[in-house]
Here is the input.
Amino acid sequence: MKFPMGASWKSSLSEMLSLFFQEFTYEVCVSKQQHHRSVTSKVKRLIDILGSLLGLAIAAAVAVPVAVAMLLDNPGPLLYSQVRCGFKGRLFRMWKFRSMVVGAENLKHLVRNQAKGHIFKNENDPRITRVGRFLRCTSLDELPQFWNVLVGDMSLVGTRPPTPDEVAAYDDFHWQRLNVKPGMTGEWQVNGRSGVKDFDEIVLMDLDYQRKWSVVYDITLICQTIWVVFSKNGAC
Here is the structure.
């Protein structure tokens, strides 16, 4: 078993035990909500599978140069994983190309949160490496998440998956965003991205997506995301 970067076996064990006991609480809080129709859509799932296979091919192609760049800039693991909350609060491990220094989670308390609400953001986070900043600005750090899409933990389009500590502080209003699968992109990514720092505003975008959802709307958001990534609008 591999432990998260910078974490001892004791802290990893403690994390997993706390997550085990919290998972039941998450599911109870949203269990009375009906499943959103996007969750059971076979067409959406087919698009996710096809899109994730293409995305993983791209991830494989860039993995070697990214690994070499990391080795020269800040040696350490190529991939970074973090436990996140998905559909109905279910826990899963999300993957990214590492964009921060090794042991970044242990340094989080030293960085000021510039966002409002149950999210963490800092535009000049000193933990981000030079290679990591490039990966974030180009969204290349997100490519390994296509694996999460392929196995069904995530979708191409949805809401960004929160961390367990963020979810633990949710009000009833916030729980509604977990009624769909988390996505690699969504309303927030195409309508502000890093420029939106108010969590309640992000939740309203997530709920707006749930109201508007259709397969055609998902495809529209995917196309808009591609434009946003290439134009670097709201990146970093």
